Amino acid sequence: MTALADLGREDDRLPCIGVVVVTYDAEDFIEECLASLLASGYPALHVIVADNGSRDGTVEAVRQWCRETVGPEQSDGDLSDSRRTESWRSSGRHSLTFSLLRNGANLGFAGGVNSGLSFLIDAKTVDLYWILNPDTVVDPEAPGALVAWAQAREGWGIIGARVLYHARPDRVHTDGGVYRRWMGFAKSFNLGRKVEDCRPPGDAKLDYVSGASMLVSKAFLATAGLMDESWFLYFEEIDWAFRRKGLTLSIAPDAIVHHRAGASIGSGSGHRVDSAFSVYFMYRNRIRFAWRWTPAFLPSVYGWSWAMLIRRYWRHPQQLIAGIWGVHGLGPPQAVRRRLPPADWELALGGARPRVSAGADERGGDL
């Protein structure tokens, strides 16, 4: 494990990590995620909770936890627009700041990440950017292990953690993954394997790092730009990784993050079947991704999508219909549409233009 005393730079200052946690109806688990970051002991964290218009008690849960646990609320207005943000800073020698950014609508994962990254970039105090799911719990050594792995490498773009199942911490949920072009499927390395029986893959084998935990460099943001918000849900982190050009992807073997695996979006895990909402966006974006990055494989991706839909969901009519609608780029069926307020669907279906930098490598167009 990595001791914090072994880290640092020539000026003896640990890199400040800006952590972006996107929430949407995350009341049941967001406090545990934030508490694990605070308990890590890493002395330079700025955590931004970017809330996508939660309808439950997420916002108030974050406020209450910060008031009771972190420290006094910032009232000087120097961090961002005070009409949409609130911030709390811990007292003492450590620089720990927790901020709540209220987006006011469901911008999707990419839109929420972009709002948080923009907030941190404006703050001008962050050295590294860590995207973290709200249904995760980080081990105390995780921030230091990510920083140590980053400091030992050159030319890196994204570093992932070893993501383990929250309910089965002896099993790997993902060690990054590979994109199978002829199928249009992303496959996680070491999925379901015992931790002690496997190691993360080498950098050259990775096509992407899981969006559950991604440490991002400034060089990557300068090269790839922000996330493409038109994905809304699924494939956004793969698309992002495909825009990295010569920068590398890597998994830090000692950085451990526990994930509830789909709790925040309704994707399947174990006995739980995928929600119709999850299936719709998964299959919609599977076709869109192939259209953008691997158009030569589009016929086989279409065929594999149909085969997988029938195999997985023939006993679940709502999921099957949602997947068929998604594959063909149709509007969401009623079972899916109920999941979001009507005003949010324009954003969800690509109504908001992607906020990517002029230097980003955008390929193709949307289906």
> Poorly predicted ranges (pLDDT <50, ≥5 residues)?
76-80, 265-270, 352-367
Assembly of the depicted chains: single chain
Sketch the major β-sheet: 10 strands, mixed
* Approximate shape: globular
Straight-line N-to-C gap: 46 Å
Mean pLDDT: 88
Helix content range of the residues, please?
Answer: 25-40%
Structural class, judged by helices and strands?
A: alpha/beta
How many helices does DSSP assign? 11
Following the backbone from N to C, one meets helices and strands in this order, namely EHEHEEHEEHEEEEEHHEHHHHH
Total E-strand runs: 12
Strand content: 15-25%
Rg from Cα: 20 Å
What is the strand and helix layout of this fold?
Layout: E1 17-23, H1 30-39, E2 44-51, H2 58-69, E3 85-89, E4 95-102, H3 108-123, E5 128-132, E6 136-138, H4 142-151, E7 156-165, E8 172-174, E9 177-180, E10 185-188, E11 213-216, H5 218-224, H6 236-242, E12 248-259, H7 276-293, H8 298-313, H9 317-327, H10 334-337, H11 345-348
